[in-house]
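Re-run with default settings, no changes from the original entry. Doing this only to confirm the output is reproducible before filing.
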Amino acid sequence: MRVVQTFWSGGKDPLIDSFGWSSPQHHFMSWALSCLTLRQNYDEVFLYTDSVGYAIFAEQLSLPYSKIIIQYDNLDCYPTHWAYSKLLTYSLQDKPFVHVDGDVYLPKRLKPAIESAELIARTGKSELPNAMGI
């Protein structure tokens, strides 16, 4: 199973803007932990990003993504529509995948029943460990 992540800077400077976190450093630590736990469990972990994301995650942090695709440099979208880049990432997939946000940390692989499901979605307020089968 391929795991994909999406980071679009939306014209913001991630070294200054915290993207909702208490600081940019916490934001980067979350992405690092997410990537590292995913790579412990999956061979294919792809990041779809823009040049800003590439400079930070690949060049500065050297996160071990299997592949980093610079896709969103010319994304014509209001930054308030940040989820649009995720939808575009979904549309670019040509094999089964799971999209994981940068604030999700998987201590082990998802259960085979989850990985082979037609659709994986988290809805409502279920407890994440039970909902994800880990």
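The longest strand covers residues 44-49. Residues 2-108 form one domain.
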